[in-house]
Amino acid sequence: MHDHGHDHNVKNIGWAILINIGITVAEVIGGTLSGSLALLSDAGHNLSDVISLALSFLGEKLSEKKATRRHTFGFKRTEIFTALINSLSLVGIAFFIVIEAVKRISSPPELSLWLMLGVATIGLLGNLFSMVILRKKEGNLNVKAAYLHLFYDAISSVAVIGSGLLIFLTGWVIVDLAASLLIAALVLWSGLGVIKKTIHIFMQGVPEHLEFDKILQDILHVPGVSSVHGLHIWSIDSSDVFLSCHICIEESDGKADTDRIIQNINGVLQQNHRIHHTVIQAETRNLCEMGVLCDK
Length: 296
Fold this sequence. Notes:
Blueprint: H1 4-34, H2 37-63, H3 78-104, H4 113-134, H5 141-170, H6 174-202, H7 212-220, E1 225-235, E2 241-249, H8 258-273, E3 277-283
Parallel strand pairs: 2-3
Antiparallel strand pairs: 1-2
Helix pairs in contact: 1-2, 1-4, 2-3, 2-5, 2-6, 3-5, 3-6, 4-5, 5-6
């Protein structure tokens, strides 16, 4: 069946890309003509938005490809790769803004305030519209990285507008540099947050919304399970969680209904933790001689 919802999401990302290309061009021209570093910083951030959205578009398309004999998990991890690239670009932009601000401290340029304010307002409206377009897909880590680009770019535009008004009222041109440093701090903070999450997934860490000990206890409480070892919980993207473990089962007259026990475990995992991908090996004794975490 054709996925019209997915096509609609991809179409929305396409519209957001076009909007941000327009914003970037306007802010580069406006920042150059007005002499505003804050506006040029915002233009650089908007350029990263375009790259981020393009990567998100690519990630969405590739993640829909079906599993193959060579890639048995499919291509869903593309989402994490693109999220990492997007977040690293945020960090790079933050450092670029800081370097440019330091260069200008000794000789702040003359500013054309009305041009600066006009272009920043256009940028703010464009970013807000793009955020509304992507809001429904924010749960996807890849699109969340792109959404963060847009969110902090909207904050950047507000900072540019605020600094422009403050310069108009006080004549303190240095405020433009302060606004650019504030933008850099916000960009760096958002980038590092996504990097932390993507690295956690790459390291096959237990998803942050799950509790290892709670899952372990839920499995142990299933009738027929005497112990659990070799328990692994990980994810390949921001939504699909996988679990594997060995269970020792209690025998009754030398027999045990392993299918029923495994079905009951899967039911508990799905209901309590929304884990749908499992590999469970049933044993009558600990064949691996390993601890719960397979650390021996």
